[in-house]
């Protein structure tokens, strides 16, 4: 084929991008090391001091300002009351008793009964087993604290989320209004709003619950609205044609038909809540997360592993139970006849267990048994010691390859460039890839980043983020294409990815801390592992979504497999690739910050230090803002570079 | 067809887009073609200037290709889609003036509708789907179950009342839709391409089912289809629509015998005319040399049914109504119609 007349006369985008990058290096060589806006960890800028003052002022006025007295303090009191109530029930000594109202036996019985009632006997057994395991690990109370916090956040999330979701499902206007808000809530790295929340609600369970709420409510709203919206039009029309009122349509058609999607939303809300509750340990939320963080900070891999395992088990139990519940929610045949008497019988058994656990110490406090937790910690410790001794050549090799081959040069380029050079490059890339609007957003973000006083830390974090995202995309494309083309591979890998995605972000740090000790590389690997499942699944779905006819036509034309992938499937999945890069970036960014706990330094460290040291509070807040700015900037550039949308505002 | 019309539609418009009501009001805009209107105003005229009457007990078919506005039209009649302007009079009452409560009452008691994609509720058994309309108008459980079983019997679904919709074939699912529509004992049944999603054999079964039900319960029916043979088979009268506008309205033999324009002519070209046309359409005036002692037939006898008699007679057959001679038919006319099929 002769080259057809191309609509664009200027040079193609890849050429322009390469030119910008070359120019960057060319200017960097003479200019590096000047105007880098460095700031040492203990130094503060006026902005940071001012934020400290704001914090102090708010602290001083917390009990006098009407905004606090009648609004924020009320919310805090109500949320605290709910959390404390659930904790009294299952985790903390309460009502003048040395133990909670429900002891371990009661909790296990109730969990199993509820699992059976909403799902099936199999997951009920799994749930009971999982909960007994917490006790055996010696983490009963911590687990129950995590569960209490999760339940409180989920209860409030659903109370708010489902009605809003129904509204968004029914009203186009409200749907349009709330979608960007939800997008924003979900793309913001989870950590970032912890600090501002503590400003309003103090450190403790109330802030943790509210932070969790912000993170966990969007899926409930989204999926409820989606469920309502995807009810088949004919069913709604038919019911209207029979003269149903709005309420009848909602209760008899829309809600029953979207029940399954709504339960799926409940599942996602619970998983999000669990993930966030563990991270909220940074602002002193009780539970397993706190154990993990303390252990991470002292590099105690064994303890971190034990508590991390408990989080994984809880995630698996909650996920399996709610997934099974959503499958049961599918409309199906009649209820088996024996189910009702069985439900009554099991209910009595559960009640007896609750009574026992209320009355007898053996059923209330988990017995100090074989000390499985200690054994697990010691096992993890010895495996770590062995791995660090025996595998060090391999792990160090990988670490050095990435660190020296990719990370260091990149970081040097970013960190040692004068700020105006990085700014110009970002602006040029945004202009080339995204157009005028992206360039404007980028310019604003660069300006504000300088304003935070954390330019150099931002560049360090940016370098790690970009390296990790590149690795995520390599994994995403390779594994995604494989899964997209091969159903067998898909069937095996997908459940692993699904399981990976339900894990709270923290948990990933533990094994990599064991293998690679506390470095930037550890944070990067954890981020890649955290972000890869999303990217892989999006790419796989994109490749799978390429129309079978087109693939057939290309095959009939004699394409080789490689040609088929590079000339047909990947270009046609272009939108998915862009989405994968975008999502991968967001996930990586939020994880690189969590990596601040294990030696990633830079913005992540600033945020974490801000929680623990009063004089760094303002700096931590500024670092949080810098993370958001980086996220917005990268999101704008990456989103608009989707190959399927060459023009902006189409 | 004059007298008491059950449904009387006058100058009905449905325009989608921004400020739609200006289109029917303006003589200039309403004269534009669909395409010009879209370019000028961004509005789409789905239904334009439609008027017709439906007599009690009649099967009235609206036929057109996709995009002709027929499905929008039938939804305008029950205000599932709000018409832009015009008049829909049902048993002397202007439906467009009805408040929400009155409209619900009408939908609960007077009309019901059968949909192309059935619109069944998958989590309810057949019997609960059928009684759904009775349930939302507040009937007690015993009464609605009794009535549901009656109509399930009527549409030939007995034995399946406790099945779920996804356990039934497409044809049987549509029987459920039909039963649901009949359960409320409405005055008028609306069908929106009810059999388009079914395969041809099932479709034929269902058409016969509708003919049978019409004979047994005698309801007024408004039937939407894109299939001409279905229209000819079911319809007492047929309204052909194109680009939202009515093109011709008449009985099947009128459409085939006297198409209003090339569009209709093109449409009916492949119809086997012998099966549709009556002697009225092919008879000629007697000539002086005709032998006038042949047998007599009525003008509404279909050509196919008359063929054997005419060919056997060997001489001109007289077409007679109320003992008045309208014309004659000979071998030549019959063969002219029969042999042109497929031309």
TrEMBL record, chain A:
SUPFAM superfamilies: MetI-like
Domain of life: Bacteria
Transmembrane stretches, start-end: 123-140, 147-170, 190-217, 262-283, 303-321, 342-363, 419-450, 462-485, 505-536, 585-604, 616-634
Presence of the UniProt keyword Cell membrane in the record: yes
Family: Belongs to the binding-protein-dependent transport system permease family.
Primary localisation category: membrane
UniProt keyword annotation of tRNA processing present: no
Membrane topology: Multi-pass membrane protein
Protein name, UniProt field: ABC transporter permease subunit
InterPro entries, sorted: MetI-like, MetI-like_sf
Subcellular location as annotated: Cell membrane; Membrane
TrEMBL record, chain B:
Transport found in the keyword field: yes
Keywords, alphabetical: ATP-binding, Nucleotide-binding, Transport
InterPro entries reported for this sequence: AAA+_ATPase (IPR003593), ABC_osmolyte_uptake_ATP-bind (IPR051921), ABC_transporter-like_ATP-bd (IPR003439), ABC_transporter-like_CS (IPR017871), Gly-betaine_transp_ATP-bd (IPR005892), P-loop_NTPase (IPR027417)
Ranges for domain ABC transporter: 32-268
SMART domains reported in the protein's UniProt record: AAA
A molecular function GO annotation: ATP binding
Family: Belongs to the ABC transporter superfamily.
NCBIfam families to which the protein is assigned, alphabetical: proV (TIGR01186)
Listed name of the protein: Glycine betaine/L-proline ABC transporter ATP-binding protein
Source organism per UniProt: Actinoplanes sandaracinus
């Amino acid at each position: 084929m002769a080259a057809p007349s191309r609509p664009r006369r200027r040079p193609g985008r890849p050429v322009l991008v390469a030119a910008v990058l070359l120019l960057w290096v060319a200017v960097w060589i003479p200019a590096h090391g000047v105007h880098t806006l460095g700031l040492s960890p203990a130094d503060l800028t006026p902005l940071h001091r001012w934020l400290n003052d704001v914090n102090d002022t708010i602290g001083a006025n917390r009990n006098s300002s009407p905004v606090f007295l009648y609004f924020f303090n009320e919310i805090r009191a109500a949320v605290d009351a709910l959390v404390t109530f659930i904790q009294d029930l299952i985790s903390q000594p309460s009502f003048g008793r040395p133990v909670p109202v429900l002891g371990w036996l009661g909790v296990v019985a109730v969990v199993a009964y509820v699992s059976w009632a909403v799902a099936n006997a199999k997951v009920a057994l799994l749930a009971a087993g999982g909960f007994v395991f917490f006790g055996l690990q010696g983490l009963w109370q911590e687990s129950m604290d995590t569960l209490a916090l999760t339940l409180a956040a989920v209860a409030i999330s659903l109370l708010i989320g489902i009605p809003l979701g129904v509204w968004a499902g029914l009203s186009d206007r409200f749907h349009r209004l709330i979608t960007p808000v939800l997008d924003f809530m979900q793309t913001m790295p989870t950590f970032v709003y912890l600090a501002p929340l503590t400003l309003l609600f103090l450190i403790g369970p109330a802030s943790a619950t509210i932070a969790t709420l912000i993170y966990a409510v969007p899926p409930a709203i989204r999926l409820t609205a989606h469920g309502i919206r995807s009810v088949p039009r004919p069913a709604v029309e038919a019911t209207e044609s029979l003269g149903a009122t709005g309420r009848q349509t909602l209760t008899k058609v829309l809600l029953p038909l979207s029940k399954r999607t709504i339960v799926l939303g409940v599942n996602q809300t619970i998983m999000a809540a669990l993930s966030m509750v563990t991270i909220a340990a940074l602002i002193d939320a009780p539970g397993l997360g706190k154990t993990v963080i303390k252990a991470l900070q002292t590099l105690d891999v064994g303890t971190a592993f034990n508590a991390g395992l408990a989080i994984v088990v809880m995630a698996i139990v909650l996920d399996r139970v709610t997934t099974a519940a959503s499958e049961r929610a599918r409309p199906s045949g009649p209820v088996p006849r024996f189910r009702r008497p069985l439900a009554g019988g099991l209910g009595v058994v559960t009640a007896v267990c609750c009574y026992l656990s209320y009355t007898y110490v053996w059923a209330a406090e988990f017995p100090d048994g074989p000390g499985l937790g200690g054994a697990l910690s010691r096992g993890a410790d010895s495996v770590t010691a062995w791995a660090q001794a025996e595998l060090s050549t391999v792990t160090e090799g990988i670490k050095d390859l990435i660190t020296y081959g990719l990370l260091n040069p990149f970081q040097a380029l970013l960190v040692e460039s004068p700020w105006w050079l990085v700014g110009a490059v970002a602006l040029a890339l945004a202009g080339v890839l995204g157009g005028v609007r992206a360039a404007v957003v980028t310019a604003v973000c660069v300006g504000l980043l300088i304003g935070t006083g954390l330019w150099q830390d931002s560049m360090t974090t940016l370098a790690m983020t970009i390296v990790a995202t590149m690795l995520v995309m390599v994994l995403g494309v390779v594994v995604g294409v494989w899964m997209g083309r091969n159903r067998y591979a898909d069937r095996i890998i997908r459940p692993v990815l699904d399981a990976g995605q339900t894990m709270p972000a923290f948990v990933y740090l533990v094994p990599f801390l064991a293998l690679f000790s506390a470095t930037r590389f550890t944070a990067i690997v954890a981020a890649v592992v955290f972000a890869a499942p999303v990217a892989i699944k999006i790419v796989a779905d994109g490749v799978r979504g390429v129309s079978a006819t087109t693939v057939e036509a290309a095959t009939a034309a004699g394409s080789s497999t490689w040609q088929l992938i590079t000339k047909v499937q990947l270009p046609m999945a272009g939108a998915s690739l862009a989405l994968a890069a975008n999502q991968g970036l967001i996930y990586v960014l939020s994880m690189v910050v969590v990596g601040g706990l294990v030696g990633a330094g830079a913005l992540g460290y600033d945020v974490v230090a801000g929680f623990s040291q009063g004089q760094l509070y303002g700096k931590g807040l500024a670092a949080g803002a810098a993370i958001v700015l980086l996220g917005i900037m990268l999101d704008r550039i990456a989103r608009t570079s989707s190959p399927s949308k060459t023009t902006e505002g189409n | 067809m004059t007298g008491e019309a059950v449904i009387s539609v006058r100058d009905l418009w449905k325009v989608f887009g921004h400020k739609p009501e200006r289109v029917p009001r303006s003589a200039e805009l309403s004269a534009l073609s669909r395409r010009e209107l879209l370019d000028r105003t961004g509005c789409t005229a789905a239904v334009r200037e439609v008027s017709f009457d439906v007599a009690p007990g009649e099967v009235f078919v609206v036929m057109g290709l996709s995009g002709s506005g027929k499905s929008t039209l039938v939804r305008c009649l029950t205000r599932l889609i709000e018409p832009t302007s015009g008049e829909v009079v049902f048993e002397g009452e202007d439906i467009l003036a009805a408040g929400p409560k009155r409209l619900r009452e009408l939908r609960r008691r007077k009309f019901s509708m059968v949909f192309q994609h059935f619109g069944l509720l998958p989590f309810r058994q057949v019997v609960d789907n059928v009684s759904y309309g009775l349930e939302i108008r507040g009937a007690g459980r015993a009464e609605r179950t009794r009535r549901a079983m009656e109509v399930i019997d009527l549409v030939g679904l007995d034995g399946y009342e406790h099945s779920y919709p996804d356990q039934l074939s497409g044809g049987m699912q549509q029987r459920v839709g039909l039963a649901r529509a009949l359960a409320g004992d409405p005055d008028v049944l609306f069908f929106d391409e009810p059999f388009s999603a079914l395969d041809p054999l099932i479709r034929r079964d269902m058409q016969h089912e509708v003919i049978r039900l019409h004979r047994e319960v005698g309801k007024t029916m408004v039937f939407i289809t894109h299939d001409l043979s279905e229209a000819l088979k079911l319809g007492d009268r047929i309204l052909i629509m194109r680009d939202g506008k009515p093109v011709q309205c008449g009985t099947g033999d009128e459409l085939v015998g006297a198409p209003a324009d090339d569009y209709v002519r093109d449409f009916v070209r492949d119809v086997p005319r012998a099966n549709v046309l009556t002697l009225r359409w092919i008879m000629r005036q007697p000539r002086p040399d005709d032998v006038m002692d042949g047998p007599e037939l009525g003008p509404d006898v279909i050509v196919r049914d008359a063929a054997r008699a005419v060919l056997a007679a060997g001489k001109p057959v007289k077409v007679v109504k109320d003992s008045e001679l309208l014309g004659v038919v000979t071998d030549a006319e019959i063969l002219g119609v029969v042999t042109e099929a497929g031309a």
